[in-house]
Amino acid sequence: MIKFNKEIFKKALIAGFFSALTIGVLTTLTYKSAFGLFLAGSFGSSMVLLFGFPESPFAQPKNVFFGHLVTALVGVIFVNLIPLPIYISIALAVGVGIFLMIFLDVVHPPAGGNPIMVIIGSVSFDYLLLPIISGCLIIISLAILINKFILKKNYPLK
User: Is there a domain that residue 155 lies in?
Assistant: First the structure.
């Protein structure tokens, strides 16, 4: 039998609520404005860290921003400049993206999926600005406002 834990329930509720709010902002900007695309599938996974585990080194703003940017850039380079079969391109791009995140000390695990969606979607370099850079800036800004000022957490750590 599962034992009810009030603290875990509260943490999960808060993380779920603020994740929905943040993704709601990005969704509204994407579908109800003329500004462009602000959503990337990997942003949903980022919410787990930013609102469930903001104390994690993987949830820090530098890691979120540059993790997403580096891996999306790798995907865009592979899809636009390296003519390989898709099954080889995806595998290599994910490996290179993970290598670079670790090497550059900007590991953000949700970003590991960016090369897959970038290559499958055959996106251009514009994808780096909208949704990756703009979406990350909005996500990070909301995470700081919510974690630091509403939830009174020590975020960001560095």
Answer: no
